[in-house]
Write a structure and sequence with these properties.
CATH architecture of the largest domain: Roll
CATH superfamily of the largest domain: Mannose-Binding Protein A, subunit A
CATH class of the largest domain: Alpha Beta
Number of domains: 2
Radius of gyration: 25 Å
Number of helices: 6
Helix content: 10-25%
CATH topology of the largest domain: Mannose-Binding Protein A, Chain A
Order of helices and strands: HEEEEHEHEEEEEEEEEEHHEH
Structural class: alpha+beta
Strand content: 25-35%
Length: 232
């Protein structure tokens, strides 16, 4: 078949893929990706740690927990550049676990039970064990302060990211593929139109997509199906 035929004939089906590996991290609007996690900075509100925890929980997230020096550097760099604030809550605390303990435990941890690597963190001044300043806030330099949990600060929520393909795409091997709807005659496209459709991120829901080229065995296996006919 000549190329002129390809540009005018309506295809029965077309396939496109996102070049390269699966997306490392997909975060919802309003969240910033770093590593395998998503972060939501809210430094415009000033709330207690309980209110901050509730807001993060409603989003399926936790208050900020730091697990590496690189993560801390990214947090402080991002906060200084885009979210200036006097400070924000973390999930670090030494709250007593029973009503019989009136003072703070002196043992700081993330949330209720997660052990914290204190070598990653730096206190402005050594925390007091007075039973009042049982929650930890952090400034944009990454320095911690022990505070009354009823104090008011901004906060950062942290949520594990979603690795994989955009919604509606198929994961196969190390790539993502979109298969068009062949049951709807209005969705059948010429080769040129299919190519343009793939490249339009507002319609294909992915950046950098293109009509599939058979680059490896995964692509060949995806295309080599007797009941499918596709542009690629």
């Amino acid at each position: 078949m000549k190329m002129t035929d390809y540009t005018t004939l309506a295809g029965l089906l077309f396939v496109l893929c996102v070049p390269g590996a699966l997306s490392d991290n997909l975060c919802d609007d309003g969240w910033l990706p770093y590593g395998s996690n998503c972060y939501k900075f809210d430094t415009t509100k000033r709330v207690s740690v309980a209110s901050a925890q509730a807001e993060c929980s409603n989003l399926g997230a936790n208050l900020l927990r730091i697990h590496s020096s690189d993560e801390l550097t990214w947090i402080t760099t991002t906060a200084k550049a885009s979210f200036p604030s006097a400070g924000f809550w973390t999930d670090l605390n030494d709250n007593p676990k029973t009503s019989l303990t009136k003072l703070g435990t002196g043992k700081w941890q993330w949330g209720m039970f997660e052990t914290v690597d204190m070598s990653l963190l730096q206190w402005g001044t050594s925390p007091v064990n007075d039973g009042v300043a049982n929650c930890a806030g952090m400034n944009i330099l990454g320095t911690l302060s022990d505070l009354n949990c009823l104090s008011l600060q901004g906060f950062i929520c942290k949520l594990p990211g979603q690795s994989g393909c955009p919604l509606g795409w198929l994961s196969y091997g190390t790539a993502c593929y979109w298969i068009s709807d062949t049951t709807n005659a209005t969705r059948l496209l010429s080769w040129n139109d299919a190519k343009l459709w793939c490249a339009d991120p507002s319609r294909s829901n992915a950046n950098g997509a293109q009509l599939m080229s058979v680059a490896d065995q995964n692509d060949l296996s995806m295309a080599d199906s007797p009941e499918q006919c596709c542009w690629y």
